[in-house]
Amino acid sequence: MKAAYVKSPWQFEVREVKLRDMGEDEVIVKVKACGICGSDLITAAGEAADWQPFGHEIAGEVVEAGRHVQNVKVGDAVVLESGTFDRFCNNCRNGRVDLCNTGPNYWLKGPMGFSEYILAPKECMVPMGSLSFKQASIVEPLGVAVDLLYTADVKLNDDVLVIGMGPIGLMALRLARAAGARKIYAAQRSTGKRRIELAKQFGADEIILTDQVDLESYPFARKGVDRVLVTAPPSLIPSALKVTNMGGIVAFIGIEYGPKAAITFDANDFHFKKLQLRASFASPALYFPRSIELIESSVIDADAMISHTFKLDEIEKAMKLLRDDRATTVKVVMLSD
Q1: Stretch (H or E) spanning 315
Q2: Domains in the chain: how many in total?
Q3: Sign of the torsion angle spanned by Cα atoms 45, 49, 53, 57
């Protein structure tokens, strides 16, 4: 079978490999679709010191199941959680499965999503309902957006600012609208033309072009906003805090490494405005059934999210397209058929 591997900086190989023997609690899935995540770009840019498999936004068909697997069977269409909780640690037993990162997963244990087949634990298998495989590749990143929305605790009639109109930001914006936000502002650089159009389609009331307008001096209707969802580098957090109203919440998922990972802000202003800064980190991967329902009920338009598709042998071209072309790309998805 074929599987793609990546090594920094921006090196790719599609190799002929063999899967290891399947365990009694494991499943072999024929990969039908796998999306490129922003974290895959980070891996290609500098995090993969040696060759490694990648791809974790996976939908496919079960082709073989271990004898202890009861939750899925051969022929089932599934979407794969990128990792789950273990059920036995103190966090899980105390009802905080969201804090557990020691559960079964398939990370770096063999070929991953950018391959023809993947071997994964039974716990990662989630039946994907009526979705197409293409649509189901959106479930994993949608779960991230759901986690961000819950972390921000968007309330009815809140004014919400979403910074960054990548796939997570766009879906979080749409979820904020569905949750009853009064007014939604979308902050995005002017180069992301297709993302800006989708932001309008998904419910943004106003677009703030951050390369043309100073976010901190923007004339918000309530002088500021009640909630900010940051899907951009941490350097945007200080500005987000400045435009947050008394008692507001800033939630973020942006990742950066090196000196740019550190930020500073006025602690007194933070204190006297009674602000909250919350990190959203969707690991373990949760909310897959809800995400499937959100797509099935058309709250999230998965098809509108997918701007480009490619075949496995085109992985290098697809990765560099997403890196270099922010004007037309949104979500780029590998399809096997």
Answers
A1: helix 315-324
A2: 2
A3: negative
- Between 139-152 and 167-178, two packed helices, what is the crossing angle to 10 degrees? 60
Q: What is the pTM of this model?
A: 0.96
Q: Is 87 left (phi over 0), alpha (psi -120 to 50) or beta?
A: left
pLDDT value, residue 63: 98
Provide mean pLDDT across the span 167-179. Answer: 98
Q: Two tokens at 18?
A: 């063999």
Query: What is the domain range of residue 116?
Result: 2-138+300-335
Residue 310 sits in a domain whose CATH number is 3.90.180.10
pLDDT tens readout for residues 21-45: 999 999 999 999 999 999 999 999 9
d(CA 108, CA 114): 12
Q: Measuring CA to CA, which residue among 175, 189, 199, 178 is closest to residue 232?
A: 189
